[in-house]
Amino acid sequence: MTLSPQHRAYLFAVLTVLMWSTVATAFKYTLAYASVLQMLTIACCSASLMLLLVVVVSGRTTLVLPSLLQHWKLSLIAGLMNPCFYYLVLFEAYDRLPAQLAQPINMTWAIVLAVMAAVVLKQRIGRHDYLAAGICYLGVLLIISQGGQQGFSHVDWTGIGLALLSTLIWAGYWVLNIKDERDPVIGMFLNFLIATPVVVIMWAFTSTNPVPLPGILGGIYIGIFEMSLAFLCWSIALKSTDNAATITNLVFLAPFASLLLIQLVLGETILWTTYVGLIVIIAGLVYQQRTAAGLQARQVP
Question: Under a CB-based contact definition with an 8 Å cutoff, are residues 86 and 169 in contact?
């Protein structure tokens, strides 16, 4: 049975959402057995091998060297940003914070991207962008409160700062990709090809303890599903649909499914402020997207 392009888009979008739903739990689970740098190294190596397999199977092998020679500066900068610095900061945030705090805060990268892209591309930032940002960060404050005002005195503010910093790095990475002329799969493979040796060297100079089997398996899972397959499935979903809005809305299911797994697998008690804060963040993101789409539609002659 052959799937229609739209059904194919839904299939790969749902697969992506399912993978994204597991990563917060996978991060915290793996960090119980491995250090941040150990987890990052294992994940980067696994993602590099998976992407190499995809490059070979898809017949893109001959594109690797020409793309590297032509875009080596972009590959270097992008690779250091993602996966190197982004995941290093994000994993450190997860190591310091409960998963129910780190995961929703990381979602605000989308609003950071909207503002950052406007600044970099010299575009005018509308009032709706500021309002959407305010709504999102109100949700962040609700989540940080952890059930009440007293939660602010018990939170790891360094972890909060790292989680917010990760949104800046991730948004910056996607702004950099706006003018990226590389094939998406080749570009991602080159990023990991450059970043992985850097991460391995960092690990070699800072970590001597062996990683137990659960830490190794967790790192492999993160590398395959979070760092590589999720990106590839999402790319296929976007290319298969004639209306991106029909599948992008599915993304908002991921954080709620993620909270369910965090509670069931990690045993964290999900506080009411986490649910309310997450709903507020999503409301801000939806408002920003719909307002931006409406303005764009009015500008089309």
Answer: yes
Q: What is the rounded CA–CA span in Å between residue 52 and residue 185? A: 9
Residue 182 in 3-state DSSP?
Answer: coil
CA angle 112, 114, 117 (to 5 degrees): 100
Dist CA 165 CA 173 (whole Å) = 12
Model pLDDT, residue 196:
95
Contacting residues for 48 by C-beta, under 8 A, at least 6 apart: 189, 192, 193, 196, 223
Contact call for residues 74 and 3 (beta carbons, < 8 A): no
pTM: 0.91
Per-residue pLDDT band for 8 (boundaries 50, 70, 90) equals: confident
Residue 184, preceding bond cis, omega within 30 degrees?
no
pLDDT in tens, 39-61: 999 999 999 999 999 999 999 99
The DSSP letter of residue 128 is H
Could you tell me the end-to-end alpha-carbon distance of the chain, in angstroms, rounded to an integer? 41
